[in-house]
Design brief:
The chain is α/β, with parallel strands linked by helices. Helices cover 25% and strands 21% of the residues. InterPro entries: Metallo-B-lactamas, NDM-1-like, RibonucZ/Hydroxyglut_hydro.
Length: 247
């Protein structure tokens, strides 16, 4: 995909990219240790829809700078594909947006917001449960400061499906990775944003035989959508899914 950020700065290592139609991506970090997924921007003259908040306020601010450089409208809605930290911890850096998510994630995030997050707290939790190590070490690396940090539960929730004023469709799919997993569909651009919905459970909850939910994934691939984006990999097409035997 072409780099359309419009920036010539040598410091802009990561830039926003147009995937198809009005869907743009701020790409994931390929280093799995950083647990930093892609963030989608669905640009509309009524205000952009941001799909996932970024894994930290600093990440969110990088995305905002890239949006401004590309001339995209400011965010009006922020949609959570699910409640996990790497999809929600940037939310406090998105002012003046309506946060939308599945009802199953609201109470989880309310409970998460009450925890005393700090580097010391992360270390104490890992000592108590070493299986949390990869996730909590990534959180520590993501957060250069805790000043002003808050976890923001969704303000608007839905149960099965919801269509935003811009025509963006949200559909709850659940699954083993997170009970509130939601796919975000942009029919006019033929793009399906899958979050982590078909991934196995998080590492600290994963059994040795847990793997991707390929049955769910195959059911999500349809002739209505050409592009598919899961959060921690490069975008792929329906043609690639067919070639790999998913449909």
């Amino acid at each position: 995909m072409p780099d359309t950020s419009g920036s010539d700065s040598k410091d802009d290592i990561i830039s926003i990219q147009q995937l198809a139609g009005r869907v743009w991506l701020f790409p994931h970090d390929p280093d799995p240790g950083n647990i930093r997924g892609s963030v989608a921007i669905i640009a509309d003259d009524r205000g952009s829809v941001i799909v996932d908040a970024g894994h930290s306020p600093a990440h969110a601010r990088e995305i905002q700078s890239a949006m401004a450089a590309a001339g995209l409208p400011a965010a009006s809605w922020l949609v959570y594909t699910h409640h996990h930290w790497d999809h929600t911890w940037g939310a406090c850096a998105w002012p003046d947006v309506e946060i939308v998510g599945h009802v199953a994630g609201r109470e989880i995030l309310q409970n998460e917001a009450a925890r005393p997050w700090s580097h010391r707290y992360l270390r104490d939790e890992v000592r108590a449960n070493p299986r949390l190590g990869p996730s909590f070490r990534a959180r520590a690396l993501a957060m250069d400061t805790w000043d002003g940090f808050t976890i923001r539960p969704p303000q608007r929730v839905f149960t099965d499906e919801l269509t935003l004023p811009t025509g963006v469709r949200l559909r709850h799919v659940g699954g083993a990775h997170a009970p509130d997993s939601t796919v975000v569909l942009v029919p006019d651009s033929a793009v399906a944003l899958l979050g982590d919905c078909f991934y196995p459970p998080p590492a600290h909850l994963r059994a040795p035989d847990d793997g991707p939910d390929l049955a769910m994934l195959g059911g999500l691939v349809s002739g209505d959508y050409e592009w598919y984006v899961d959060s921690h990999d490069d975008p792929w097409t329906r043609e690639q899914a067919v070639a790999n035997g998913l449909v």
